[in-house]
Specification:
The complex is a heterodimer of chains A (427) and B (295).
Chain A: H1 2-30, E1 43-49, H2 52-67, E2 70-76, H3 78-91, E3 98-102, H4 106-109, H5 122-127, H6 130-136, E4 137-138, E5 141-142, E6 145-148, E7 152-157, H7 158-162, H8 164-174, H9 184-194, H10 210-218, H11 236-247, H12 261-269, E8 275-279, E9 296-299, E10 303-304, E11 307-308, E12 315-318, H13 326-338, H14 354-360, H15 369-376, H16 390-406, H17 411-426
Helix pairs in contact in A: 2-13, 10-11, 16-17
Chain B: H1 5-34, E1 37-39, E2 47-49, H2 53-60, H3 62-96, H4 101-107, H5 115-126, H6 132-139, H7 158-183, H8 187-195, H9 200-228, H10 232-237, H11 249-259, H12 263-289
Antiparallel strand pairs in B: 1-2
Helix pairs in contact in B: 1-12, 2-12, 3-7, 3-9, 5-7, 7-9, 9-12, 11-12
Classes of the chains: A alpha+beta (427), B mainly alpha (295).
Chain lengths: 427, 295
């Protein structure tokens, strides 16, 4: 019987241990919010997209000196970043005190972050690009401080453009000189000219929507939704932009449907494309061992009938409501504004203040800044519509529509279908 | 202290039951409960009872029905190919006997690779403009242009392309399970059939496969459910594109919940998916395995 008794005892002890272990782990997983890992201390956890770490390191060092706030960075890839933010905001427990948010996420997360109106002084508003000041203000409150901004410019192969034979051949074929394009007709001609011998004139990105939207702005229409949130995706400007976008497919590498930013950057850096419309930061990110290093020129985004238009790609520093370390977090956000130019010498090499860009624009290695400033100040430049459904509209309507368009779909039909789908989403 | 057998059995079951209650039953209950609410994606936001509205929205959405059919097609392709290849390899290993030991180990190799790594590997093999497969087929004279086939950019074939890493990874699992099952088929039965004049096809279809039935059922159900919730390999290769042509149910539910911030609709989709999987598992077990029926 003693064996039986021992088994009973063991089973009982085992059961109790398991219950305790489960209770303990249960508390850890779903218990009350422990708030951020740095509650009430002078250390702030900053969640950033890859690249943001380097961009903000100089700021963090300066902030430590000035205010004593220590910064601990958590770096995530772009897609992982949104998903992490979304999960943490929905659980109510956040592991960070400051998050760098992509501009398109602001409307989605507006209820989860604190207003930082006190940091937007009149002086600050004057030194930040107007489109960004407008975008940072959601429902009457400023909820994010622009940390760095970006826009698409034209990157082109200077060596090919300056080659004497290319110049002569181009002149003979098109009747004007080969130079960085200033009209979209020239862009088309140059793309067609360089598409030969395994090389392509440009790329067409079917996996992302921003570039097509920039063409929409240049054609004189707001993007997808007008000021009253009415869907205008089927208007003439959207069709003109889509027709132009797909007209370049014949001069672009195959598989346009799946070409996204990473693929396009790779194609250009590998020397497969002669021109690309790309975010300005890519100019300084061309690897030194790349076939095109030192051979790239930068030009402003080209104007359409409505003028130069680009979609700014700013990132905002926001403080979540759930953090218990809001004071230190706001100090860091202020530092990021005060020492905004510290990020320019990083690998990402961007800033958000006009004065910071202007300080560097004439220095060698920063040739992309003037085109970037010109694009950001462009007459038609505008930020994306502030709707919390934007990400869903992009993922389920705009990108699939572009992918069908680059595969040869009829633009008017595709835009009409897209209008209906977006209206359904916004209901 | 004396306790009854019944109570003793209860004691032994308690830890597992508690574990299942906390980590399976409770989340399941929450999933089903959430599917009847419209929930704000931000903590502390609104939570409004909407009855069956989320289910109506799920069935009315083309994305949901499309993802359902794609998941079914993906699962059928993956499981059929894995089963055919796995059974072939298992029979080969059985035939080779002890000399197959090293080959068996080598064949297990893909099973040890993380799916996300395998997905990335195959992405670079199949990607447009840089993919090795296109280049090799071109050099072999099969394709006129390395980019002739858009493995990951042609919506017509992308679902089959993204299935390749999954097949490559888990055929060895199917082989392992079937090989173990083959070891249990009595050798004298095969020998007797041979003496009676049975040829290879008759041996396979009349002796081996019927005897393997319980093992096949387990392998198919486990792999079928596993394939139906394919996620990581597809996410890394195409993220569901182009034109959502490789978006399976798990990807859709994940995107609805995390990316589009609609936990209620995602829960309704998850519940429907769960019911469908339960039904499939039930049918598979009762038709292929038929526990107890043969006796």
């Amino acid at each position: 019987m003693s064996t039986r008794k021992n088994i009973n005892r063991l089973a009982t002890i085992g059961g109790i241990c398991t219950v305790v272990a489960l209770a303990a782990s249960g508390c850890g997983a779903g218990g009350p919010a422990s708030s951020s890992g740095s509650a009430g201390t002078s250390t702030v956890n900053v969640l950033v997209e890859a690249g943001g770490h380097a961009e903000l390191t100089g700021v963090a060092e300066q902030c430590k000196k000035e205010t004593g706030v220590d910064v601990n960075f958590v770096e995530l890839p772009y897609d992982g970043m949104f998903n992490r933010l979304s999960s943490e905001f929905s659980s109510g427990t956040v592991s960070f005190d400051v998050a760098a948010l992509d501009s398109v996420w602001l409307p989605s997360f507006k209820d989860a972050v604190q207003p930082i109106d006190e940091l937007f002084t009149d002086e600050a508003k004057k030194d930040i690009f107007p489109a960004l000041v407008k975008e940072a203000n959601v429902d009457g409150h400023f909820i994010g401080m622009p940390a760095w901004t970006n826009a698409e410019i034209i990157l082109y192969r200077k060596d090919l453009f300056e080659d004497a034979k290319n110049k002569a051949d181009f002149q003979a074929k098109y009747g004007y000189g080969l130079a960085a394009p200033t009209t979209w007709k020239q862009y088309q001609d140059i793309s067609a000219f360089f598409t030969k011998d395994g090389m392509y004139g440009t790329d067409v990105k079917g996996g992302v929507e921003t570039e097509w939207l920039a063409h929409v702005l240049q054609a004189g229409s707001p993007m997808v939704l007008d000021a009253n949130n009415k869907v205008v995706i089927d208007n003439a400007a959207h069709k003109e932009a889509l027709d132009f976008y797909t007209s370049l497919v014949k001069d672009a590498p195959s598989g346009a449907a799946q070409v996204d930013w990473a693929a396009a950057q790779n194609l250009f850096n590998q020397g497969k494309t002669a021109m690309t419309r790309f975010w300005a930061h890519a100019y300084r990110q061309i690897p030194k061992d790349s076939a095109v290093a030192g051979k790239v020129g930068a030009a402003p985004m080209i104007a359409g009938s409505a003028g130069v238009g680009g979609v700014p790609g700013p990132w905002y520093l926001s403080v979540p409501k759930a953090t218990k370390n809001a004071d230190a977090a706001k100090k860091f956000v202020k530092c990021a504004y005060d020492y905004n130019d510290k990020g320019i010498e990083s690998n990402l090499g961007l800033a958000a203040r006009i004065s910071a860009f202007e300080k560097y624009q004439d220095k060698p290695g920063y040739e992309s800044f003037k085109p970037l400033i010109q694009t950001l100040n462009g007459k038609a430049t505008a930020t994306r519509p502030a709707t919390e459904k934007w990400q869903q509209i992009v993922d389920t309507v705009l990108v699939p529509m572009l992918q069908k368009a680059v595969a040869g779909g009829d633009s008017a039909t595709l835009l009409a279908d897209a209008k209906k789908q977006i209206e359904d989403l916004l209901k | 202290m004396r306790i009854s057998d019944r109570r003793f059995a209860l004691f032994l079951m308690t830890p597992a039951a508690l574990f299942l209650a906390v980590f399976v039953a409770f989340p399941l209950f929450r999933l089903v409960a959430d599917s009847f609410f419209k929930i704000s994606p931000i903590a502390g936001g609104s939570r409004e009872f909407v009855g069956l509205d989320n289910y109506v929205r799920a069935f009315a959405s083309e994305a949901f029905t499309g993802a359902g059919w794609r998941t079914l097609a993906y699962t059928l392709v993956v499981v059929t190919l894995e089963f055919a290849l796995g059974l072939g390899m298992a029979l080969l290993f059985t035939m080779l006997g002890k000399s197959s030991q090293i080959w068996r180990t080598v064949f297990m190799y893909p099973l040890m690779i993380a799916p996300i790594v395998a997905g990335l590997l195959w992405k670079f093999l199949m990607i447009d403009n840089f993919g090795l497969i296109g280049t090799l087929l071109h050099q072999a004279g099969i394709l006129s242009d390395p980019n002739q086939i858009g493995w990951l950019s042609d919506p017509g074939i992308v679902l089959y392309s993204v299935a390749v890493p999954d097949i490559w990874l888990t055929t060895s699992f199917m082989c392992l399970v079937l090989f173990a099952g083959l070891q249990n088929i009595p050798g004298d039965l095969i020998e007797a059939a041979r003496l009676d004049g049975a040829r290879a096809p008759a041996l396979l279809f009349r002796i081996i496969l019927p005897l393997l039935r319980p093992v096949i059922a387990v392998a198919l159900v486990v792999r079928g459910i596993d394939a139906a919730r394919a996620f990581d390999t597809i996410l890394i290769q195409t993220n569901g594109g182009p034109q959502s042509a490789s978006e399976t149910m798990s990807l859709l539910i994940y995107r609805t919940m995390i990316r589009f911030g609609d936990p209620g609709l995602a829960s309704a989709m998850g519940t429907l998916y769960l019911l469908a999987m339960l039904a499939v598992a039930f049918v598979a077990v009762s038709t292929i395995w038929r526990p107890g029926k043969d006796n």
